[in-house]
Amino acid sequence: MIATFEHVQMVEKAEELAKMIWQSELAEDYHRCLYNLQHDPEAQELIRAFDSIKERYEEVQRFGKYHPDYRKVTLETRELKRKVDLHETIHAFKQAEDAIQKTLDEISVMIGKAVSENVKVPTGNPFFDSMTSCGGGCGSGGGCGCKAS
Fold first, then answer.
1. Is the dihedral of CA 113, 117, 119, 124 positive or negative?
2. Residue pLDDT, tens place only, 15-51
3. 97 close to 30: Cβ distance less than 8 angstroms
4. CA 110: distance to chain centroid?
5. Residue in 119, 118, 122, 120 with CA at minimum distance from that of residue 105
6. Phi and psi, residue 2, nearest 5°
7. For residues 122 and 125, what is the distance between their CA atoms, to the nearest angstrom?
8. How many CB atoms lie within 10 A of CB 46?
9. Residue 133 to residue 131: CA distance in whole angstroms
10. What is the pLDDT of residues 98-112, one digit of tens each?
11. Which residues pair with 147 in a beta bridge?
12. Alpha-helical segments (H) within the chain
């Protein structure tokens, strides 16, 4: 690919946009919450415990209800997941992460739509995916027949 002056300008603008996002209050909140999460020993212990039980849960799921520890491991997993979700530091981090992800999704959709209604913009966000008829976020009008509206 040959870099044209126009291409270089677009890359520079993208870098400016990335820098603006990096310096925003949303990003500052995200980094503060990430730092708090990484330095909260209780949260780290919960995450390690959840990762550990997740492996046991996957093992049990292979055999389903026929595994002798199915009920026990399933119950422990749900209880630990609830503890993780309700932990203050982890919850704050997830909220900050969701907020910045929503902003990044909005920007991606805006840029994609500015180019063409048929540009594929994978967001992984049901809100943006619902803007297309297939619900998959493709908007291509191809095999699934959907078009971004």
1. positive
2. 999 999 999 999 999 999 999 999 999 999 999 999 9
3. yes
4. 18
5. 122
6. -95, 125
7. 8
8. 20
9. 7
10. 999 999 999 998 998
11. 140
12. 5-22, 25-38, 41-63, 70-86, 88-115, 126-129
pLDDT at 125: 67
147 and 118 Cβ atoms separated by less than 8 Å: yes
Classified as helix, coil or strand, 87 is: coil
Buried b (16+ CB within 10 A) or exposed e, 66-87: eeeeeeebbeebeebeeebeeb
Which pairs with CB-CB distance under 8 Å and at least 24 residues apart come from 39-44? 40/89, 42/87, 42/89, 43/87, 43/89, 43/90
> 124-134 pLDDT, tens per residue?
766 666 655 45
Instruction: State the DSSP code for 68.
Output: T
Q: 9 is written with which tokens? A: 């300008």
Mean pLDDT value across the chain? 86
Residue 138 has pLDDT above 60, yes or no: no
Please name which of 35, 8, 14 lies closest in space to residue 104, comparing C-alpha atoms. Answer: 14
The label of the residue with tokens 């595994």 reads 67
